[in-house]
Amino acid sequence: MPQPKVKLVVTGDDFGYCPRRNRGIVECFLKGGVSNVSLLVNATSAVDAAELAKRHLIPIGLHANLSEGAPVSLNLKGSTLLNEEGFFHGKTGFRKALQSGQLNMYEVEQELRAQVKRFCELVGHLPFHMDGHQHVHVLPEVREVFAQVVADFGICYTRIPVEPGLHGCPLIPPHLRDFYIQVQKDALSSVEVFRRHGIRWPDVYLGLTTMGQNMSVASVKQALSYALGASSLNNAFTGAQSDSPAPKTDRPITAELMVHPGHPSRPQEGGCGQGPDDFSQSEDRQHELETLTDPSLLAYYKQESIQLCAFRDL
């Protein structure tokens, strides 16, 4: 077989969130729309998700969660990671607590290690990759602890959410743009930390500009166009690869496309201990599922020599 131009990992995040999300992600995998999943081990349907991954031989990694729902570790009573109800502080609350110096990094480490161990109990092997729910793994201080845990368990791959073309994307509303730009700054500051621990990641990350209603066959093609040429990659992603120069023509470019397909969660069904959020209940989940399995997108992959694969295949 000819060498592909791009090895593309299409990762379905939030596997385990609820039965309907699980079912939609599996449908997407079976139709060729996703090639990899990321499991929330503290979610209410994590056991079901792990069984589905085994049954359908779905490559699976850990979506480490420090911001939504209840912890896995049993040693965090009164923890700085939790609010008065015993739940994580939320996407914004976690960042505020971190910025004010309120979070204990030893407790972060305890929880991350507990989630890796829980993953192994559910799935039967270590994660093929490990990233952070709501991108918490690239935050200051957290990234150091995260990298050490990943390295200690011998997990090879993570996610560096720095997306070519993000700054020029007109589809993203201002409040999300500000958040995404900060995510990118944190991610770039994580590069040296992850490199020092021997952790790897694909050449290109995609997914912030193609989330929800912004996802279309055209927008996915546009995002992928940045990955199709070594010169574009070198300009857009300088410094963010672990230890290799810009890809040459003798090897494929590697890329990850982060996606969130599924059937929308029903109220009071799913979540990580507090019920499903608006993001999971949105019809955007169905829209992503339909787009990712659109025959014209799957044909485009073949036409452009884009090979869908998993982190374990890189």
Automatic annotation (TrEMBL):
Signal sequence bounds: none
GO molecular function: hydrolase activity; metal ion binding
Keywords assigned: Carbohydrate metabolism, Hydrolase, Magnesium, Metal-binding
Cofactor dependence: Mg(2+)
Source species, domain of life: Eukaryota
Region (Disordered) residue spans: 260-294
UniProt-listed Gene3D superfamilies: Glycoside hydrolase/deacetylase
Family indicated by similarity: Belongs to the YdjC deacetylase family.
Annotated function: Probably catalyzes the deacetylation of acetylated carbohydrates an important step in the degradation of oligosaccharides.
Entry protein name: Carbohydrate deacetylase
Protein's organism: Coilia grayii
